[in-house]
């Protein structure tokens, strides 16, 4: 059996050191700061304490792979990303650690591209099957003879104030289609990981803009599951047009909704929901995937 830990949307809180006046003075971040002060700060206030407890949970068990589907920061500022990088230091030493950016980590276009790729370059492993992409994704991790993880970046900068949507580049979609046809993947259980949800419940301003084409490619291939974050509430649903089941990890640290997943991949694969009891993270009963 292959055991995989999946968490998302930690949103480490803003600290004095991670704050930059130069970076904050952009319309989108000014609005986000107001929103953070009025609403988000209280939701993620205990994120650091919960993260310590999550590290204890992680160390108390054995996992074959660990997936983080992004949104480790609030506004993607350089200092925030460095802070999150430091927090993830221990867990990211896992030999099969897969990290994806969320929209909050690639928040705005920066002068030299995104800070995310620079700061996390040591934590984004090379793909086991290289592609010609100019970003590290799509990234294949052949966990073992039983499971392959295919990580797709769906986050992009959103300078428009009211937009927080995602989009998967045409290059990635094409590479993904090719990779899913490879024997190395077809002979294994395939877990596709990305930041955004792919159902039609979301708006075009908040969801994945090209989810239909993404779903169509997934439907062509036989994937065991799609895993993602972005929606701060744990959920599962069936992908339209295919037999693949989607698992949203929700947010690890959002007050009152703390959650994550553990997947047990085998002939009869199961998932276990992780929850927070006020002091520590615990696992629920196994449910069929
Ligand atoms: Fe988030
Ligand atoms: Fe997000």
Main pleated sheet: 6 strands, mixed
Q: Roughly what is the average pLDDT, rounded to an integer?
A: 94
The share of residues in helices is 25-40%
Please identify which CATH superfamily we are dealing with. Metallo-dependent phosphatases
Can you offer a commentary on this structure?
With 289 residues, the chain is α/β, with parallel strands linked by helices. It has a single domain, classed as Metallo-dependent phosphatases (Purple Acid Phosphatase, chain A, domain 2, 4-Layer Sandwich). Helix content is 26%, strand content 21%. It contains 8 helices and 12 strands. The chain has a 6-stranded mixed sheet. Strands 4-5-6-7-9-8 form a 6-stranded mixed sheet. Helix 4 links the parallel strand 2 and strand 3. The chain is globular and about 50 Å long. The two termini are 14 Å apart. The structure holds fe (ii) ion (2 copies).
Summarize the structure.
Helix content is 26%, strand content 21%. The protein is α/β, with parallel strands linked by helices. A six-stranded mixed sheet has the order 3-2-1-10-11-12. Strands 4-5-6-7-9-8 form a six-stranded mixed sheet.
Would you spell out the secondary-structure blueprint of this structure?
Blueprint: E1 2-7, H1 21-24, H2 27-43, H3 47-59, E2 65-68, H4 78-87, E3 97-99, H5 115-119, E4 139-142, E5 147-151, H6 170-180, H7 183-186, E6 189-193, H8 211-220, E7 225-228, E8 235-238, E9 245-248, E10 259-265, E11 270-276, E12 281-288
Bound molecules: fe (ii) ion (FE2) (2 copies).
One fe (ii) ion (FE2) is lined by residues 9, 11, 71, 102, 104, 230, 232.
């Amino acid at each position: 059996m292959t055991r995989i830990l999946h968490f998302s949307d930690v949103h480490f809180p803003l600290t004095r050191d991670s704050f930059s006046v130069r970076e904050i003075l952009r319309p989108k971040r000014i609005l986000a700061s107001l929103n953070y002060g009025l609403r988000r700060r209280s939701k993620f206030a205990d994120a650091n304490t919960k993260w310590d407890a999550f590290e204890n949970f992680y160390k108390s068990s054995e996992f074959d792979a660990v997936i983080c589907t992004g949104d480790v920061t609030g506004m993607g500022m350089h200092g925030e990303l460095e802070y999150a990088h430091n927090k993830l230091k221990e867990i990211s030493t896992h030999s099969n650690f897969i990290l994806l950016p969320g929209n909050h980590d690639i928040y705005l276009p920066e002068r030299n591209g995104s800070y995310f790729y620079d700061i996390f370059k040591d934590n984004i492993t090379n793909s086991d099957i290289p592609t010609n992409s100019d970003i590290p994704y799509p990234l294949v991790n052949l966990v073992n003879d039983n499971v392959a993880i295919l990580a797709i970046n769906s986050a992009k900068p959103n300078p428009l104030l009211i937009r927080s949507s995602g989009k998967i580049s045409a290059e990635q979609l094409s590479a993904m289609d090719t990779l899913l046809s490879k024997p190395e993947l077809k002979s294994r259980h395939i877990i596709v990981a990305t930041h955004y949800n792919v159902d039609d419940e979301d708006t075009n301003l908040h969801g994945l803009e090209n989810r239909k084409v993404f779903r169509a490619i997934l439907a062509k291939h036989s994937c065991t599951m799609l895993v993602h974050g972005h929606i701060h509430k744990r959920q599962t649903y069936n992908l339209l047009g295919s037999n693949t089941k989607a698992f949203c990890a929700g947010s690890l640290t959002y007050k009152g909704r703390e959650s994550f997943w553990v997947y047990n991949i085998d002939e009869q694969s199961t998932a276990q929901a992780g929850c927070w009891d006020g002091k520590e993270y615990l696992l629920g009963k196994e449910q069929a995937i």
